[in-house]
Amino acid sequence: MNEKKALGILEYSLSKELEGMQFYESKAKTVKIKQVKETFEDLSSMEKGHADYISSLIKDVKSHDYGHFSQPTDVGKSFSKRATQEIAYQGDFTAVKSDIPVLRMAYLIEEDFMNFYNKAAESVEDEELKKVLNHLAEWEKEHRDRIYTLYQKLSKDYWEHMDVEPLY
Fold first, then answer.
1. Please, are residues 33 and 154 in contact by the beta-carbon 8 Å criterion?
2. How far is 13 from 140, CA to CA, in rounded Å?
3. What is the pLDDT of residue 83?
4. Distance of alpha carbon 85 from its chain centroid, rounded?
5. SS3 state at 130
């Protein structure tokens, strides 16, 4: 294993996961729609879990103990199942206007995380690290898709409420 490269990828990953956690914590306090708030609270907790996991991998690399380099337990399944159970929004559509751009930012953050992990996995030769990075990419894909589903539903509800078709 190229220890320097592995540590570089993992330390960068840790900083991005912590940044994501802080973004979701912060935005959960400012968004207005309950479903968006709950989604961001869930994501903040998941990003914390990712950060803890990556921290343990960094310790393993530094101590040359690669025994824990296995795919992490999947914590995203119940999260992604909830995406199909969301109900149409029936509340204050002013809130929808303010929350939709925040959902879009969250989508882009998760897209960036997913792309980073995919590219990092392609760049390493160590098969165990590659598996870990690919699994992290899958987690971020689940987050991205969950956000996109909520974004699409709220956008659709908003445009239907406005009784107009979107211009895009």
1. yes
2. 12
3. 47
4. 19
5. helix
The single-letter code of the amino acid at 30 is: T
14: Cα separation from own chain's centroid = 13
pLDDT at position 72 is 56
In tens, the pLDDT along 123-140 reads: 999 898 999 999 999 999
In this structure, what token pair is assigned to residue 131? 């598996």
CA–CA dist 111, 22 (Å, integer): 17
CA nearest neighbour of 20 among 100, 112, 102, 109: 109
DSSP 8-state symbol, 63: T
Low-confidence ranges of the chain (pLDDT < 50): 75, 78, 80, 83-84, 86-87
At CA 78, angle to CA 76 and CA 84, rounded to 5?
110
User: Which ranges of the chain would DSSP assign to H, the alpha helix?
Assistant: 3-28, 34-62, 77-83, 93-123, 127-161
Spatial separation of the C-alpha atoms in residues 7 and 9, rounded to whole Å: 5
